[in-house]
UniProtKB/TrEMBL annotation:
Catalyzed reaction equations: [protein]-L-glutamate 5-O-methyl ester + H2O = L-glutamyl-[protein] + methanol + H(+)
Record-annotated active site: 11, 38, 131
One record GO biological process: chemotaxis
Segments forming domain CheB-type methylesterase: 1-187
The protein's name in its UniProt record: protein-glutamate methylesterase
Keyword Repeat: no
PANTHER family according to UniProt: PROTEIN-GLUTAMATE METHYLESTERASE/PROTEIN-GLUTAMINE GLUTAMINASE, PROTEIN-GLUTAMATE METHYLESTERASE_PROTEIN-GLUTAMINE GLUTAMINASE
GO cellular component: cytoplasm
InterPro entries listed in its UniProt record: CheB_C (IPR035909), Sig_transdc_resp-reg_Me-estase (IPR000673)
Taxonomic path: Bacteria, Pseudomonadati, Pseudomonadota, Alphaproteobacteria, Sphingomonadales
A matching Pfam family: CheB_methylest
């Protein structure tokens, strides 16, 4: 597999889980990483500042019509779906909520699967709803790789469990195994 992009989805407990995954990506990780975390719509997005201090890669909030850059972590802004368009460009949408969420993990994963096919890795972390399950299934059906946080280590196991049921071929991993696995896919 030649990894071209990574998508990560998290909800309840996601900041702690991401704090064990994203800082472990080394400075030489030359693949764009797009992240959806369920955050309340009218809150300022503190995730960018928080992770910019912890990570070796550039961290920013995704912007509409922005071309993806290698070695950059993009967070979906509050109250916008994050999508990947043809040509590996990001798009933002204020369409209806999906799984009661905007941004929704499924929206990012499904559009990224269309754009990157077998070059995509999808990662579903802790969370309290089904968001990410359909998206991870789309990633796997497009030939990409699915990684799911081990439910026993998730703050809320609903999301990883739903993703594993939707995508039985996904690999179950402890948080400290995810970044090394992604890095191995770039070699």
């Amino acid at each position: 597999m030649s990894l071209r992009a990574v998508v990560i989805g998290a909800s309840a407990g996601g900041v702690q889980a991401l704090s064990q995954v994203l800082p472990d990506l080394p400075a030489g990780f030359r693949v764009p990483v797009m992240v959806v975390v369920h955050i309340p719509p009218h809150k300022e997005n503190a995730l960018v500042d928080l992770f910019a201090r912890k990570c070796h890669l550039q961290v920013k909030e995704a912007e509409d019509k922005e071309p993806l850059a290698p070695g950059t972590i993009y967070f979906a802004p509050p109250d916008y779906h994050l999508l990947v368009e043809a040509g590996e460009t990001l798009a933002l949408s204020s369409d209806e909520t999906v799984n009661h969420s905007r941004p929704a993990i499924d929206v990012l994963f499904e559009t990224a699967a269309d754009a990157f096919g077998s070059g995509l890795a999808g990662v579903v972390l802790t969370g309290a709803n089904q968001d990410g399950a359909k998206g991870l299934k789309a990633v796997c059906e497009a030939g990409g790789v699915g990684l799911v946080q081990d439910s026993a280590t998730a703050e809320v196991a609903t999301m990883p469990d739903a993703a594993r049921i939707a995508c039985p071929g996904a690999r179950t991993m402890y948080l400290d195994e995810i970044a090394p696995a992604l890095q191995a896919m770039t070699r």
